[in-house]
UniProtKB/TrEMBL annotation:
Organism of this sequence: Nonomuraea fuscirosea
Any one biological process term the GO annotation gives: cobalamin biosynthetic process
SUPFAM superfamilies in the record: Class I glutamine amidotransferase-like, P-loop containing nucleoside triphosphate hydrolases
Gene expressing this chain: cobQ
Listed name of the protein: Cobyric acid synthase
Family statement drawn from the similarity comment of this UniProt entry: Belongs to the CobB/CobQ family. CobQ subfamily.
NCBIfam families: cobQ, PRK00784.1
Residue numbers annotated as active site: 334, 418
UniProt keywords, alphabetically: Cobalamin biosynthesis, Glutamine amidotransferase
Amino acid sequence: MVKGALLVAGTTSDAGKSVVTAGICRWLARQGVRVAPFKAQNMSLNSYVTADGAEIGRAQAAQARAAGLEPVADMNPVLLKPGSDRRSQVVLMGRPVADVDAMEYGALKDLLRTTSLEALKRLREQYDVVVCEGAGSPAEINLRRSDIANMGLARAANLPVLVVGDIDRGGVFAAFYGTVGLLDAADQALVSGFVVNKFRGAKELLRPGLDMIGRLTGREVYGVLPWLEGPWLDVEDSLALDGRQVAARPPYGRQTLRVAVVRLPRISNFTDVDALAAEPGVLVRFVSDPAELDDADLVVLPGSRATVDDLTWLRERGLAAALRERSGPVLGICGGFQMLGREIVDEVESGAGRVEGLGLLPVRITFERHKRLARPEGQAYGERVQAYEIHHGVATVEGGEPFLDGCRQGNVWGTTWHGALENDGFRRAFLADVAARAGRDFAPDPATDFAALREERLDALGDLVEQHLDTAALLHLIQHGPPPGLPLLPPGAQMGEPR
């Protein structure tokens, strides 16, 4: 029986840690191994609500699905949600406990470390294998003393570490060598090998580099994962949105339906539009210029961790005026819904007090200290809708037509519900209505099954692991830990122990 654990680290953010973790979970689950994902500390504005009302990172929820499990708070005990460049909300075991800056965070680190290790211990007692995901890079030497997600976790739990590098960005071999070299001796002893991710081309061209990095570091390259076309669902990092345009599947109807998603500075839960991109013939773009709204059949104003600040940004960019002048369909979700209202009273998130909204919906928003975390159900367009809620702002609806606990007025819809578009019947009916209002000869594909597409995507990640990694060596690493006698690279060997 396979028994053990592994930490998947990365040379950078968005190197592919989440994808590789999900792929390993799916591959192990298909082998009959009871496996669970884990991320000690996640900094992300894409989150999810578990069945018992806990908030965790969206990527960990997807990894739980890859493992065939219902997500729970133990899989992501610490979630940091940045509200600005300096402050983040700390979510501990699924509940917000503080709003801190970097210095205040230091006072919490012992509690966060203890809580994370206890959560990992519980998972290891319940499951055969726990696949842990790191955060950022393990070589963030300025953060090493307070680290609980990378080498701090690996040291505390004696985990072998696999480092993933994104070759599409370039410099992957230097990143591998530098990652190991910047670590102290005890940390280096846990770094067991590498995975090259996002490779396009003939693997033979990589062979000299793979051989050399093996000789230079004394560590195995466990495999090369090819570039996977199409979007990875449930990404957690907004880096993935830079320049993103997604036409996920070939057109089904006679015309393409064009969706523009406003790329807010503190955009949250942008995964709400994954289901739109999965619909044949729907083109989804993330935009930040008013002119980019002109040819959109639907504009989505998504969630935000800083509603008032992002509303100010809309005004400064000219997007607020463009939205007010727009006659075509607009959908606001959570923070976007709040911005579309008449007024926001916020003494909690921004402390700005009373702020004028865009005035496109007859709604007034009051921020409360208690965060609402729920899994609501309802109906719209005669279709059943299951969703989840994560918000401090409470809406008082003063007119319009009811719409998923929000409202609709004219061509503008607003709701606090995340994930509503993942409901196939509702999504088709909504898009058909949008197309009619936009004058598009577009018909949603009645065969599109978003849940099935997500499962296909997770299977594809499992296939990548099974077909392109040395799975026998990976199993040995999970069960037996780091290979003994791994060589030390200077200057890490002389850096001394982190305190």
